[in-house]
Amino acid sequence: MHHPSEQNYIQQLSIDCVIFGYHEKQLKVLVPKLDFNGDFWAVPGGFVYQNEDIDAAANRILQERTGISEIYLEQFYVFGKAARNSLEFIDKLISLNPERLTGNGLNRKEYDWFTRRFVSVGYYALVDINKVTPQKTDLDESINWYNIKELPGMIMDHNAIAAKALDALRLSLDEKLIAFNLLPETFTMKEVQELYETIFDKPFARNNFQKKILDLNVLERLDKKFTGAANKAPFLYRIKK
Amino acid sequence: MHHPSEQNYIQQLSIDCVIFGYHEKQLKVLVPKLDFNGDFWAVPGGFVYQNEDIDAAANRILQERTGISEIYLEQFYVFGKAARNSLEFIDKLISLNPERLTGNGLNRKEYDWFTRRFVSVGYYALVDINKVTPQKTDLDESINWYNIKELPGMIMDHNAIAAKALDALRLSLDEKLIAFNLLPETFTMKEVQELYETIFDKPFARNNFQKKILDLNVLERLDKKFTGAANKAPFLYRIKK
DNA sequence: GCAAAAGTGTTATTAATACACCCATGT
DNA sequence: ACATGGGTGTATTAATAACACTTTTGC
Q1: Are B51 and B85 contained in the same domain?
Q2: A199, A169 in Cβ contact below 8 A?
Q3: Residue A224: domain span
Q4: How many domains is chain A partitioned into structurally?
Q5: Which ranges of chain B would DSSP assign to H, the alpha helix?
Q6: Last residue of some domain: A129, A156, A178?
Q7: A216 CB contact with strand C at below 7 Å
Q8: How many angstroms separate the CA atoms of A32 and A146, rounded?
Q9: Does strand C come within 7 Å of the CB of A217?
Q10: Start and end of every Nudix hydrolase domain (chains A, B) (predicted)?
Q11: B210, B47, B241, B17: which is closest to B126 by C-alpha?
Q12: Whether residue A79 is found in the same domain as residue A169
């Protein structure tokens, strides 16, 4: 693999993706940890090829880490402060990993490329967490789902990016019907409600919630789901085709 | 003035500003016409200096054209298609202006710089049209306010950018209290209503509208405005400090 | 006094929230 | 039978839209 500095990328433009998943009443974000000494977490990101739409670049980055395509994806903000560079991060990285990053590891040209100011387009993605098998790149030590409320301290402004992504998600959830991207193919009404409660961090009345969602007229009711529990079996739903 | 290609700009990144004004029941956009043969209109735009926030760059571009600072400004979308370049436009420009743009006018380096693919951050601005004295740059033949519904055919995707800006404006108008940026210091309730009716292109009931706006609790009522008309004088309002 | 337009109150409609009840299920 | 959780209907409240009336202004 060539270094980014040698690739045909647009310079000083990056993409950062906040990948949201949902599991057991928790809104989660997929965050890789870098395979270097020092604890460096960073939201999946990358650069844009000269002949590539920025949306396509975001898709490519997402596919790399999640293994799935056709992901729901939304551009939500451009981070463009002049002071926005990775100088501090890279210097720390090098000082903690001298054997790998000095001499041949990271030459002057590459160092300069990485530490320049970058304008970053923020995307958030909504995925069915069951369909994803998190993929490490060759720069990752691990990649894991973290509760949005318990994100590790990430490099640069990545924690702020994640926070802004959550804001944007909440705003668009009300207007568009995108929440279902976080759920599996079929689901019960209670699961939908719990998802909303998790995202907005507040409770909804059961009966009114059901009415509201069904009134959207986008769900079709399937068979009941018998769990073996000693109570009425809930219906399963899925998005109308 | 130096050519952009020689300036210390971020490469392949541009800013495009849709400047909204309001006058006589019309939502208007400030559009310069280029000082070249051929009818080329283009939304005010520019590039970002290495040590400049993108918001600051947008502000600078706005100030150049409007003469005022402290403009309400909102980033609304990033236009990042791979095919997004000005090749067609520039070639047409050169063919229609050979005397100025061939030879020393526009050298190879500059031509390459201009015709590369650009990722553009779209901003919209809301200004009090009375406070603005439209300023030509040395590349402009004229600069004028055009009704949003009667915009000239602009270069590249600038008409699509303007359309998207209007969409974004409508969306945020409901949530935030930004409409008043389009009005003068003091205004009557009817003027507010007409502004809303213009932006959303639909009528509002007078009494209900008044109630809705006053219930926002952001306006303070001033003296009446006597116009000499043979009817009840309306109150003037202004934003509470 | 009258026409024009502003201001306000009152009713009707609709949407959001709260409350109550019944139903299916496994032990 | 009964505890548990699901589904739905009704009442209450609040928000929105529709309707009606009064007031101010200059001629």
Answers
A1: yes
A2: yes
A3: 183-239
A4: 2
A5: 54-66, 87-96, 98-101, 108-115, 158-175, 189-200, 206-215
A6: A178
A7: no
A8: 10
A9: no
A10: 10-170
A11: B17
A12: yes
Do A212 and A93 belong together in one domain? no
- pLDDT (tens digit, 9 = 90+) per residue, A162-211? 999 999 999 999 778 899 999 999 999 999 999 999 999 999 999 999 99
Same domain, A150 and A194: no
Rounded Cα distance between B19 and B201, Å, is 19
On chain A, the residues whose CB falls within 8 A of the CB of B77 are 75
Placement of tokens 């990358």 in the chain:
A46
Domain identity same for B155 and B212: no
- Residue A21 C-beta-side C-alpha neighbours within 13 Å: 20
CA-to-CA dists, residue A21 to A18, A60, A72, A125, A153, angstroms: 10, 18, 11, 8, 19
State pLDDT tens for residues B18-61: 999 999 999 999 999 999 999 999 999 999 999 999 999 999 99
Examine the domain organization and report whether A190 and A173 are in the same domain: no
Tokens of B48: 């970002």
- Work out how many CB contacts closer than 8 A connect A with B: 63
In what helix (H) or strand (E) does residue A31 lie, and over which residues does it extend? strand A26-34
Please choose, from the candidates B116, B115, B143, B236, the residue with its C-alpha nearest in 3D space to the C-alpha of residue B187.
Answer: B236
- Residue B189 corresponds to which tokens in the numbers above? 């309730």
Is residue B141 located within the same domain as residue B218? Answer: no
* Distance, CA of A63 to chain centre: 11
Residues A29 and A131 in one domain: yes
Answer whether any strand D atom is within 7 A of the Cβ of A219.
no
CATH of the domain at A13: 3.90.79.10
